[in-house]
Design a protein that fits this description.
The structure is a homodimer of 190-residue chains. With 190 residues, chain A is an alpha+beta fold. The first copy, chain A, is built from 8 helices and 5 strands, in the order αααααββααββαβ.
């Protein structure tokens, strides 16, 4: 993730943050990691990101300490990418940018594609991170991501992540569920 | 701001937001607009962004409805860039990413470079946007940005924005102050 020298000269904290996540795909990869996506193939299939780009971005996020690359339990040599404490700290930014996109660039279906609910009482959690039911601040691991009115139903050919997110799912819980078939990304994915 | 076809296919609200601001310089330009920077030359001098890149990013932000390009009052043909309501909605994301950068990529000086204070009582305002003194939610226009412990004193050759931000300044108030000399960016800025 090379940057112009002048850019590196910026010591502002926002500039430093943008050095890590200031790229179109990067925050989408982090967002998927919050949803529970952990495997290369599922990031690639869900985001339709070119695999060479995904390889580069995952390496950058791992080098920056946002993701931790580790062996998948009981999966032999397969590795997964998991958010570190530093990575978990990005949730407010992901949530704020998502809320802005929902308000100012709504999906064709109208209304948000995803709702974020407090898993203990099912009440909506606003962009500020507080439960509209109990008023408590809700960490990402206590959030359910549920389909919203703007979400189109997944097609039969939907990738396993898209299919799994058609029902409420608790953040930071591995996706796809262990019981779901793991489909490979389509051949010819760039 | 061209994007891969697959990327445009993403209807997620975060993906739509990243189409507008998902580039390293873009949120820094928006951040400067919140600080009160309005003129091309001052964006260029403060961010040390290549002028061709700045021209492209300002055009993109204007086309996306984040910035409004308008004549500067009493300045003849000179134009300024001002945040729209859509642009003002980006503050929580800018603040969240800045706070993350402060926590996980602190500047060499240690501590935050900028403090955000409630202009009515001078109390710090946290990343969540609430005043630690009165508890009220504080819109960006009611924030003071003040130098923090991590901010190095500006040099004698500092651009006028860097110099102006060495003292507390109310967000969305034009920078540099009308009384300050307006220096052109250094010759040879790429």
């Amino acid at each position: 993730m090379t940057l112009p020298r002048d850019y590196r000269g910026q010591t502002c904290s926002l500039a430093r943050a943008m050095e890590v996540v200031g790229e179109r795909w990067t925050l989408l990869i982090v967002r998927d990691a919050f949803y529970g996506v952990r495997r290369f193939g599922e990031f690639a299939a869900h985001l339709s990101v070119p695999r060479a780009v995904l390889t580069d971005r995952l390496a950058g996020l791992t080098a920056a300490g946002v993701l931790d690359r580790r062996p998948e339990p009981g999966a032999g040599r397969r590795e997964v990418y998991v958010l570190t404490a530093k990575g978990l700290g990005l949730w407010p930014a992901v949530r704020a940018l998502t809320a802005w996109g929902e308000e100012h660039a709504p999906p064709p279906g109208g209304g948000p594609r995803r709702l974020f609910l407090h898993h203990t009482d099912g009440a909506p959690v606003g962009p500020g991170g507080h439960c509209s039911g109990c008023g408590a601040p809700v960490p990402p691991g206590d959030l359910l991501v549920a389909p919203g009115p703007g979400l189109a139903p997944p097609g039969d050919d939907a990738d396993p992540i898209t299919a799994a997110l058609a029902v409420p799912h608790r953040l930071l819980t591995p996706l796809p569920p262990a019981t779901a078939p793991v489909r490979r990304p389509p051949k010819g994915t760039p």
